[in-house]
C-alpha cells in the first residue's frame, strides 16, 4: 500500500511536468483494494485493470521503476513507452493491462479464466472495474457467461462513489453493485475498501472458491479517490470538503498502521516507518531511472502492434485464427 501511495504521489505530478498529453488517474485512497486482492494471486494468475490502474500493477508485482518509465513515455517501460499510464501490461506478472476503456478489463480477464479452465492451468483471473464500469453492458454479458461456464474469475468493483463527476447513487439501479451477483447466481461480497484486512479476507474466500472450480464471484469494495478524476478535474465542483475529510480520516494506510501497532506483536511503528522510507526512496530512484531512459524512435511506432503469429498469417494471406 505504501509503495502504491508513494508511486502515485510522486509519479502523477512528475508525469505532468514532462509535457505528456495523456490523462493520468491517481488511485490515492484506494490502495487497500488491489493490495488485499492481489495478495492471494501469484505471477501465474491474471488481472485486468482500469484507467486508474497503477495500484493494480504494483500489487501484482510490476516493477515501479519500469512503470515510471512507461508514464514518462520511455523505452524502459513495460510497453516500451508507447502505452503510457493507461496501457501498462506485463505478461511476466500476469498483468493484462491498465485500460482506457471503462470495463475493458472484464472480457480480458474472463478470456484468461476460460483459457485456464480449458487448459486446466489452475489459474485465477481478477477483473478490476469501477462503479461506472459496473453499468457497462459488457460486464453483465461476462458475468453471465462466467457463471454459466463456472470460470475461475473474480469481478472486483472498486466503488469509489463517482464515475467522473456522476455520483454512484445517480446511475445505479440497486443499493449495492454486489446485489447484482444474485442475477448471475454467484456470491456477492461487499466489503469496506478502506480496510485492507477486510478486503484480504473476502478476496481470499472468492479466490479459493474460484481456484477450487466453483466458479466466479462479485466482490464490491467501497473506497474513495482522494484527488480528482484526473489531474485536470476539481472534485469540489461535485462533492464537499466534509465528505473528503470523512474518507481521509479512514485512510487505509493509517487504519492498518493503527491496527497493527495496537496489536503489538506483528510489526512495530518503526518497521512501518522503515517501509515508508524505502518506498519513498524507490520513487526517487524510479524518477532518475525513467528520465535516463530514451524516448522511442519514430520508426518503432508500427512495431508491437500485432503478435507475430497473426502478422505471419496475414502475410501468407491466411484467415485470422478464430
Ligand atoms: C467505454 C468508455 N466510456 C466512457 C469513457 C470515459 N470515461 C473514462 S473514465 C470514466 C468514468 C469511470 O468511472 P468508474 O468506472 O467509476 O471508475 P473511476 O474513475 O471512479 O475509477 C468515463 C466515463 C471511457 N474511457 N470508456
Ligand atoms: Mg468510480
Automatic annotation (TrEMBL):
<keyword id="KW-0809">Transit peptide</keyword>
<feature type="region of interest" description="Disordered">
    <location>
        <begin position="1"/>
        <end position="23"/>
    </location>
</feature>
<keyword id="KW-0560">Oxidoreductase</keyword>
<dbReference type="GO" id="GO:0004739">
    <property type="term" value="F:pyruvate dehydrogenase (acetyl-transferring) activity"/>
</dbReference>
<dbReference type="InterPro" id="IPR001017">
    <property type="entry name" value="DH_E1"/>
</dbReference>
<feature type="domain" description="Dehydrogenase E1 component">
    <location>
        <begin position="1"/>
        <end position="298"/>
    </location>
</feature>
<dbReference type="Pfam" id="PF00676">
    <property type="entry name" value="E1_dh"/>
</dbReference>
<protein>
    <submittedName>
        <fullName>Acetoin:2,6-dichlorophenolindophenol oxidoreductase subunit alpha</fullName>
    </submittedName>
</protein>
<feature type="compositionally biased region" description="Basic and acidic residues">
    <location>
        <begin position="1"/>
        <end position="12"/>
    </location>
</feature>
<keyword id="KW-0786">Thiamine pyrophosphate</keyword>
<dbReference type="GO" id="GO:0006086">
    <property type="term" value="P:pyruvate decarboxylation to acetyl-CoA"/>
</dbReference>
<dbReference type="InterPro" id="IPR029061">
    <property type="entry name" value="THDP-binding"/>
</dbReference>
<dbReference type="InterPro" id="IPR050642">
    <property type="entry name" value="PDH_E1_Alpha_Subunit"/>
</dbReference>
Amino acid at each position: 500500500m505504501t509503495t502504491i501511495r508513494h508511486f502515485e504521489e510522486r509519479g502523477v505530478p512528475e508525469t505532468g511536468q514532462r509535457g505528456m498529453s495523456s490523462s493520468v488517474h491517481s488511485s490515492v485512497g484506494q490502495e487497500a483494494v488491489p493490495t488485499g486482492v492481489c495478495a492471494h494471486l501469484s505471477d501465474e494468475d491474471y488481472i485486468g485493470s482500469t484507467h486508474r490502474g497503477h495500484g493494480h500493477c504494483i500489487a501484482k508485482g510490476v516493477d515501479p521503476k519500469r512503470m515510471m518509465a512507461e508514464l514518462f513515455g520511455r523505452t524502459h517501460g513495460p510497453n516500451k513507452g508507447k502505452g503510457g499510464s493507461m496501457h501498462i501490461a506485463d505478461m511476466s506478472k500476469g498483468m493484462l493491462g491498465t485500460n482506457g476503456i471503462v470495463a475493458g478489463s472484464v472480457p480480458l480477464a474472463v478470456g484468461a479464466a476460460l483459457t485456464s479452465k480449458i487448459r486446466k492451468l489452475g489459474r485465477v483471473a481478477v477483473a478490476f472495474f469501477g462503479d461506472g464500469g459496473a453499468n457497462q453492458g459488457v460486464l453483465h454479458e461476462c458475468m453471465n457467461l462466467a457463471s454459466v461456464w463456472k470460470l475461475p474469475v473474480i469481478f472486483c468493483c472498486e466503488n469509489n462513489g463517482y464515475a467522473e463527476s456522476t455520483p454512484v447513487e445517480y446511475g445505479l439501479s440497486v443499493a449495492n453493485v454486489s446485489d447484482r451477483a444474485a442475477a448471475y447466481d454467484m456470491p456477492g461480497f461487499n466489503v469496506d475498501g478502506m480496510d485492507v484486512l477486510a478486503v484480504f479476507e473476502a478476496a481470499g474466500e472468492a479466490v479459493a472458491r474460484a481456484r477450487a472450480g466453483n466458479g466466479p464471484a462479485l466482490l464490491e469494495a467501497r473506497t474513495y479517490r482522494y484527488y480528482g478524476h484526473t489531474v485536470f478535474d476539481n472534485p469540489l465542483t461535485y462533492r464537499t470538503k466534509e465528505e473528503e475529510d470523512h474518507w481521509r480520516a479512514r485512510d487505509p494506510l493509517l487504519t492498518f498502521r493503527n491496527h497493527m501497532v495496537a496489536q503489538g506483536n506483528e510489526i512495530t511503528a518503526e518497521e512501518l516507518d522503515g517501509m515508508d522510507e524505502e518506498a519513498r526512496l524507490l520513487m526517487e530512484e524510479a524518477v532518475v531511472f525513467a528520465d535516463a531512459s530514451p524516448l522511442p524512435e519514430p520508426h518503432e511506432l508500427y512495431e508491437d502492434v500485432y503478435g507475430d503469429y497473426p502478422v505471419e498469417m496475414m502475410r501468407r494471406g491466411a484467415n485470422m485464427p478464430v
